[in-house]
Here is the input.
Amino acid sequence: GNSVTQMEGPVTLSEEAFLTINCTYTATGYPSLFWYVQYPGEGLQLLLKATKADDKGSNKGFEATYRKETTSFHLEKGSVQVSDSAVYFCALWQVTGNQFYFGTGTSLTVIP
Amino acid sequence: DAGITQSPRHKVTETGTPVTLRCHQTENHRYMYWYRQDPGHGLRLIHYSYGVKDTDKGEVSDGYSVSRSKTEDFLLTLESATSSQTSVYFCAISESTGGPETQYFGPGTRLLVL
Here is the structure.
């Protein structure tokens, strides 16, 4: 079956620290991988995506590389800001049934 | 921002009462989804629709039904609400063209079943 596992939170970092949020997946076939972000009181928004192995998705200083050999899609940012405080969800998409499978989310708090 | 609204945004109800949540889109997207979000579980798919009157079950469909009589509206009904259905419910839409598509999410409905 399909599933996504991401690191437990919450994560607390100081401003300008380096961020890594780990995500691994299990899937049949060749899924596409996504990171979504949820700010307090809002719905999820797409942060970045990668559709095939070795692709790198990037947006707003965040990036993640689709690693088929390790079935991973870790999210990284070199220097976080207070405004990056949110919950981050890793997800995979399968063409069969056009369904998404989400991880449990990782809460990030950035302190000044 | 994608035009997705959910109503109501907040609801408190009692066990055993019926509840209907509405998702409305102005994007004319084909696919619509209902998820629930709970601590420790992330988002779990309840039901989805791939066209008018075309729906299918997701991972956690027990106790829920859906209807889609128009492209723009997707209704989620709890026939007899239970406390385990206390959650935040999100609607999402996407337009599949055969490849991986971004989902756009509504603002959510917070439901409390007493």
Summary: The CA atoms of residues 36 and 89 of chain B lie 4 Å apart.
